[in-house]
Design a protein that fits this description.
The chain is of the alpha+beta class. The protein contains seven helices and 18 strands. The protein has an 18-stranded mixed sheet that branches.
Length: 286
C-alpha cells in the first residue's frame, strides 16, 4: 500500500498538522488500521478504502457548471480510536487523492459526505453542520483549562459544540492568557465536561490573524497538543456566526509546539474551513 505524509494547515513544509494517508486500504480490518495509526503516532491517520475519479452525476455537473469530482470512502483513526470526522485529515486526504489539488473531491466519511474544493492554493471543505450543546458554567470552563473566571472572555460564553468530535469551546481574554492554559486528566474527569477543550482568543500571533487557538487532548497514552484542529475550528466558525460574525477569518494554532498552523474560515450562510497542504513523504507501507 502507498503511504503519504503531508502537513495540513501549513504555510510551509514542516509546519501545520502532520497526517499519514494510506491508500488501497480496503483489505485492512479495523484492528489493523488502529495498529497502523498507533505506529504512525500522528494526531490522525487516514485509510482510503475506495476511490473513483470523475464520477459525479452528469445532471448535477451540468447544473453546477463544474468538472466531475472524485469520490472516495475514507476512515480516520487517532492512535487510540476511530473518528467520524476530523478537519485536517479530510483536507490532507483530499489533496493526496487529487494529485495535489488538481480536482475537487467528495470524501465519504462516517459522519457523512464532505466536499473539498481547491482554489488559489487552498483546500476548502464544507464541514458537517455543528450542533450546539449546553452553555457551561464559567467557573467549570475556566477550571478545565487551569484558569480563573476573570481570564475568560465574557462576550462569548463557554459552551459545548459538536462537529464530529465534541468540544468545550472556551474563549479567553487575550493571547497571553491563552499561552497559560493547562489541562490535566484528573481535573477534566472531576468536572465531568465531555470532549477536549478548544481555547481561543481574539487576535493572533501574526498581525493579520483574527484569532489564536489551542487544543490539548489525551491520546490514550498521555497529554498532547494538537497543531491544528479543523473540526474544532469548524465549530468555532459556527459559534462566531451565531454571535453575528461574518466574512473571511484567519485562526492561528500550534505556535507553542513549534508547528505553526494557519486555518482559514469563511463564515456565511455556508461555513467553509480551508488551509494549505504540503507533501513531505511518499513511500510504501510494508
Amino acid at each position: 500500500m502507498q503511504i503519504d505524509i503531508v502537513d495540513v494547515f501549513a504555510e510551509a513544509r514542516y509546519q501545520g498538522n502532520q497526517l499519514a494517508v494510506v491508500r488501497d486500504a480496503a483489505a485492512l480490518d479495523s484492528t489493523a488500521m488502529q495498529a497502523i495509526a498507533r505506529e504512525m503516532n500522528f494526531s490522525e491517520t487516514t485509510f482510503v478504502v475506495a476511490h473513483e475519479t470523475g464520477v459525479d452525476d452528469p445532471s448535477a455537473v451540468a447544473a453546477t457548471n463544474r468538472a466531475p469530482r472524485d469520490h472516495a470512502a475514507v476512515r480516520i483513526f487517532t492512535p487510540a480510536e476511530e473518528l467520524p470526522f476530523a478537519g485536517h485529515p479530510t483536507l490532507g486526504t483530499a489533496w493526496v487523492l487529487t494529485d495535489g489539488g488538481r480536482r475537487d473531491i467528495v470524501l465519504q466519511l462516517a459522519a457523512g459526505d464532505v466536499a473539498v474544493r481547491f482554489a488559489d492554493g487552498l483546500a476548502w471543505m464544507t464541514p458537517p453542520e455543528a450542533s450546539f450543546g449546553r452553555v457551561l458554567p464559567t467557573a467549570d470552563a475556566a477550571a478545565l483549562i487551569g484558569l480563573a473566571e476573570h481570564d475568560l472572555d465574557a462576550t462569548l460564553p463557554p459552551r459545548l459544540l459538536r462537529c464530529g468530535p465534541e468540544f468545550p469551546m472556551i474563549a479567553v481574554r487575550d493571547l497571553q492568557t491563552l499561552k497559560r492554559i493547562r489541562v490535566d486528566a484528573e481535573s477534566s474527569q472531576a468536572l465531568g465536561i465531555p470532549g477536549f477543550p478548544f481555547a481561543f482568543c481574539q487576535g493572533g500571533y501574526s498581525a493579520d490573524a483574527d484569532f489564536a487557538a489551542r487544543m490539548l487532548f489525551f491520546d490514550g497514552v498521555g497529554l498532547r497538543e494538537d497543531p491544528a484542529t479543523g473540526s474544532a475550528n469548524a465549530a468555532l466558525a459556527a459559534l462566531l456566526r451565531a454571535h453575528g460574525r461574518q466574512g473571511r477569518l484567519v485562526v492561528e494554532q500550534g505556535f507553542e509546539i513549534e508547528r505553526p498552523s494557519r486555518i482559514y474560515l469563511d463564515v456565511g450562510a455556508t461555513l467553509q474551513v480551508g488551509g494549505r497542504v504540503s507533501g513531505v513523504v511518499r513511500g510504501q507501507l510494508l
